[in-house]
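User: My instructor asked us to take a sequence, write out its structure as tokens, and then describe one feature of it. I'm not sure where to start. Here is the sequence I was given:
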Amino acid sequence: MLALTGRGVVAPLLLLLLLTNSALLRADWQLNDYCPAGFALRDGGCYLSSLYNDYASLQDSGVGGLQTGLPALREGFSPEQIDLGRLLFFDPLLSGSREMSCASCHDPEKGFADGVGRSMGADGKPLPRSAPTLWNVGFLRRLFWDGRAASLEAQMLEPLFAANEMANTPDQLLSDLRGSAAYRKLFAQAYGGDGDIQLAQVYEAIAAFQASLISLNSRYDIYALGYHEALNQREIQGMNVFRSFVARCAECHTPPAFTNQQIAVLGTPEPEGLPLDPGAQAVTGDPSLRGGFKVPTLRNIAKTAPYMHSGRFATLREAVAFYTGGRGHAVPEGEQLSLHWHIWEPNLTDEELDLLVEFLHTLTDESFMPALPDAVPSGLPPVLGVKLPST
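Assistant: Let's start with the prediction itself. The structure tokens for your sequence are:
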């Protein structure tokens, strides 16, 4: 890997050499013509192949049993579009500084999150909220913690172009991509034509890759699909607590997606010294949604600490214990929040909380991890996560 200069900013001459030589270094750039693991090619598009597809009872019809169908998935993208999105996702050419990629905040080694309570922006300062996992993001109908984006394409506009995130501009992004012979060739492979790259193609390709990040082969899934030896007795007990009408976890974290995709006001505490985050109220103007956030998936939850919208809880044990602490026990003085009706006082024992944590670990599955590139078409070193400064 070529060294970077200063604080990691690529010197202009070095950048020019990298971009110029990328075609020489990898003149054979070709996109995959086969679907990612878990998908089958049909009529030119990739479609999810899962036993969950065989179930007629859909998650949206209730709280969901073990053998319940999945929500609708964004699928049907071509193999080439997905693979192009994979390369773009890890390419720092997409950021204004050419130091960050999408994977800076969505690190494959950290469950496609970033391992910090509040993500770090281009200026090195913490952002208001954490980076949610991207596993199974193609099933989601709303994006961001406050649900303000209705599609993957709409969601990615903010991190790409916000001054405190990746700090790029649409014009610069197009100019850089069109200036790369390798990318012109790859966009022509994925979209036809002469490689006249359009922003909508960039957004769609990244969305195609993100929607291919499927996690449905956990030990829980093996159990739910009929092989009961996949879980031990304590994990089964934890699952029973999770699904019980006492804990009521499954009513919001509904299997098999482990989210009902709704906004919920929980009353979780903010990091020390920070004011209450208004959450969905700031988007909708609805005072009943003050402090409301989207119910996240629990898939690969053991990989994505810390927890909640601002990483308030360092461990899963702390996170599950919050729910048995008493309704509204962490609401700041003077705030009148419309707490979700599932937030009550289940009075779970320490043993039951431990069992819940053991069950949540059975939701880990990264068997369909995409191939992580050792090079990207820009010629810049691919960014597969950011090494945070030691404290």
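For the description part of your assignment, you could build on this observation: Confidence is low (pLDDT under 50) at residues 1-25. Try explaining in your own words what that tells you about the chain.
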